[in-house]
Amino acid sequence: MAGIDVLKYAHSPVHKAIVMRDYASLRRILAGLPRLCNPAEIRTESASLAEEEKADAIASVIDRRDVPNRETPLHLAVKLGDQQLLKCLWLLERIGACRMNMDGVHSKKQFAIEKKQFP
Fold this sequence. Notes:
Layout: H1 13-20, H2 23-31, H3 45-62, H4 73-80, H5 83-94, H6 103-117
Helix pairs in contact: 1-2, 1-4, 2-5, 4-5
């Protein structure tokens, strides 16, 4: 990958898959994440703690920032401008595994629109 040193991302499987544009590995990693239940179904302290553990497991993969520029996988996918990577990460939110902040995606689109309007 031109301009990006893959070795700097080797310790984070999700980041590495994104930098390498390895869609199959990314899908496999994301598919292995636990699914959060509907918040309305959480009625006990033990259920709440179980969901918190799942959320922590998801965050340890999806919100990892021990990479250059402290970029999350979503930030990196937006930076690369790879729509297929973004779709994989967007699907993760849609299936309820996490609630990502998609501002980076929307900001990138808005920047592209403004760049075309005001070269």
